[in-house]
């Protein structure tokens, strides 16, 4: 079982910068540093992908993170309120309306008064 050789960041940067300068061929740079071409190409891809981070203002990144946290909080709140509204609607459908309740009470009062008058007066 072979162990992978570890390369420090400084060597990776040096190799990638040499490749990007283009003064030597990729093969020549790889021979000088005893590194495979595939590995150097991988380092170059990573370097180029992350190059924009060098010029990113950390204050802007912190502000963006705060905005994302605020958005997440608001989304959670909207979800909670949506659930509460749905539950309230469901309960209100199960309970009789005020109009129905008023008619029901009036009807039952009339019936109870009529049923108490055995002579129909």
Please characterize this protein's 3D structure.
There is one protein chain. This protein has 121 residues and is an all-alpha fold. The chain folds into 2 domains: 53 residues; 48 residues. It is 75% helix and 0% strand. It contains 5 helices and no strands.
Helix content: over 70%
Number of domains: 2
Shape: rod-shaped
Secondary-structure element order, as H and E?
HHHHH
The count of strands amounts to 0
Key descriptive features of the protein:
mainly alpha; single chain; 121 residues; 2 domains
Present the secondary structure layout.
Layout: H1 9-21, H2 26-33, H3 37-50, H4 58-94, H5 98-116
Helix pairs in contact: 1-3
Report a brief summary of the structure.
The chain has helices at residues 9-21, 26-33, 37-50, 58-94, 98-116. The chain is mainly alpha-helical and 121 residues long. Helix 1 packs across helix 3 (37-50).
């Amino acid at each position: 079982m072979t162990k992978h050789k570890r390369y420090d960041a400084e060597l990776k940067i040096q190799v990638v910068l040499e490749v990007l300068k283009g003064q030597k061929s990729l093969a020549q740079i790889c021979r000088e540093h005893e590194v495979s071409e595939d590995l150097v190409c991988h380092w170059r891809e990573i370097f180029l992908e992350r190059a924009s981070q060098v010029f990113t203002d950390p204050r802007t990144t912190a502000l963006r993170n705060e905005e994302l946290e605020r958005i997440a909080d608001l989304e959670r709140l909207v979800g909670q309120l949506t659930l509460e509204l749905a539950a309230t609607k469901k309960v209100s459908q199960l309970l009789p309306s005020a109009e129905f309740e008023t008619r029901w009470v009036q009807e039952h009062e009339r019936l109870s008064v009529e049923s108490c008058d055995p002579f129909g007066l």
